[in-house]
Write a structure and sequence with these properties.
Number of domains: 1
Shape: elongated
Number of strands: 0
Oligomer: single chain
Helix content: over 70%
Strand content: under 5%
Largest sheet: none
Distance between the termini: 46 Å
Number of helices: 2
Mean pLDDT: 83
Low-confidence stretches: none
Structural class: mainly alpha
Length: 118
Amino acid sequence: MHTDPPGTASPPTTSSAPEMAMVPTSVGRASREWDEQHVDLRAASAQVAEASTAGFTPPVAHAATAFLEAWHTHTAAIALSCEVQADAMRAAITDWLDGDRESAARGWALLGFVEELR
């Protein structure tokens, strides 16, 4: 194990540099899971909105109505956030694939300049 003396840290080597990678199929699966959460939460929000406060006394019914409205708003907002996340992940896949395609095309175009011709 190599250790530098205090105050003389070496610059990071290529092998220790962080690497970014994206696996489109993994991101696709995750976006579908966000979609499923969106559908489930949207359904829960609709069920909360349809809940009845019948049977409660007037003071309790008022509090129950306020609770149901707040919970409906909250679950609808979370559902929307899930949908936005799923859409953003799909956009990231599209951007990555488009960028990868453009990069490959540029690489092929430059190939004639980097090969040795005899």
